[in-house]
Amino acid sequence: MMQLPLKGLLVLEFSQYLSGPSAGLRLADLGARVIKIERPKTGDACRKLSIKNLWADENNSLLFHTINRNKESFTANLKDPQDLKLVLKLIAKADVVTHNFRPGIMEKTGLGYGDVIKINPKLIYAEISGYGKKGPWKNKPGQDLLLQAMTGLAYTTGNANDAPMPFGLSIADYMAGGQLVQGILAALIRRQKTGKGALIEISLMESLLDFQFELLTTYYSSGKGLNRSQVSNGNPLLGAPYGIYQTATGYIAIAMMDIQVLATVIGSKQLEQFSQSDTFVKRDEIKRLLGNHLLQASSIHWLEMLQHHGLWAMEVNDWHEMTQKEAYQVLQMEQTLQVNNKSFTTTRCPIRIDGKRIFSSKPAPELGEHQLQIQRDLINQ
């Protein structure tokens, strides 16, 4: 069995929903012991947050199991002095604490960074907020869709005349969770060298601003906003033919390439009139002509032609089509979790170590499932 690199690391997760728990998920995948500190009776609010009414069991949503597999659960009422005393004993032995509460919440319970670092100076204390801890937006709800709206990200997708269009997933939560893990690992390396703990701070807003660094750098330099193409917009910074196009049988994606080479390969006399310097200035005109030309034949016809000449083009798959492909299957991205008498399939950790994939069949914990074990292992010693 693979010796996971974070084995022996103790993480306390005061987090709910997606951003903080997604960071804990990755740390657990890599071998850390991750304990969710949850409210008695209700626990992480994500336990009851169902997508398309899909439930893993009678108490927990499928979404909760997706984000919280491989963890343990310990319940504590942080307003109760006795429960708080138990939690402080856990913190004294922890390597990492994470939370994604609004600014000031942990401080009110006596679990802010300034409080806990006194009992565990080597602690890595990692927190996610919506907009940071200062400024007029600090108490606004840190919800993914709202952050996409407020950071301009909703204007990067879709065509020029389309309304603002959000990503079809919670990109701010995923980005912030991944960046929190980066900060934690960096702080652990520094602690190994110096013995010092650290405060790691991430906000959903900063994560989405970083996500748009290419676009924002262009804006800072020019002072001009985004310029999405009228048709087949793929990236506001890139010229034709970059985008997705309909064919006689479906859709194909076409990436960067020389417009003259493309015109010759697909046999378009109309495109031959354009030079490479036209591909941004006359982007919409080129894309319309290309789109009309591609409607004349099937996706397979165009892909065979383009790929034969080394041009970057691929089919547009839905999930069913993708999972039938050998290229997907050889990755072995699926794993099965057993929850009571039910099983369901989810994705594995995408990281490979020394050529080995990381799988874990351990489902998310029931609320308070590991209460006695955690007390024996960490509190009553």
Question: Would you write up a description of this structure?
Answer:
The chain has 381 residues and is α/β, with parallel strands linked by helices. It has 2 domains: 10-211 and 353-379, Rossmann fold, CATH 3.40.50.10540; 243-323, 2-Layer Sandwich (formyl-coa transferase, domain 3). The chain is 37% helix and 16% strand. The chain has helices at 19-29, 62-68, 81-93, 105-108, 113-116, 144-150, 171-194, 204-211, 213-222, 259-266, 278-281, 283-294, 299-308, 319-323, 326-329, 371-379; strands spanning 10-14, 33-38, 72-75, 96-99, 124-129, 198-203, 243-246, 251-254, 313-315, 334-339, 342-347, 349-353, 356-358. Strands 3-2-1-4-5-6 form a 6-stranded parallel sheet, with helices on both faces. It has a 3-stranded antiparallel sheet with strand order 7-8-9, covered by helices on one side. A two-stranded antiparallel ribbon has the order 10-11. Strand 1, helix 1 (19-29) and strand 2 form a beta-alpha-beta unit.
